[in-house]
Amino acid sequence: MKVAPGSTDVATYFVLRTAADGTATTGATITNIDLQYIRSGSTPSAKVDATALGSVDAAHSDNKAYEVDATDAPGLYRVDWPDAAFAAGVGEVILSVKLASSFTEHLRVELDNADEPTLLLAKTGFTTAGTETVGTALKKIAAMAAGDMTDTAGDIAVTESDGATTAFTNTPTATGRTIT
Fold this sequence. Notes:
By secondary structure, the chain is mainly beta.
């Protein structure tokens, strides 16, 4: 599974199986489920006891869980994780769900912006230069076009992850601004 670094309100689904015979675990007492995560290169988070969500479609709430449907999806549980598990700065996080009578389940989550390439923003008009996602860079270029940049010229250079560079020049005109 891949999640963008810094994602919030992440819910995952786990299938719990009874250790004695491998059958789906249904009717588990949610407060008996232990939740823990470990980010690469870090110490594990403190183990927490899950608390029950009100329904399978309830709004996200950290460290809560819900049995999806004991009849039509036996053993399937939704688990809501704290945002800290997915903070930027590491490449992966391992999510663990443990119930004494069932097999402990682990899920490796890659923290990856692979779906959105990054651009290196340099020069003026930005509060900070550095790496930005394409969407953020385009929003900043649009702000530059609207004249919302603190730098009157607002010239920038965008360097793509493959090394190609595109320069944008923001020129004030009598009717607005020209981005070239």
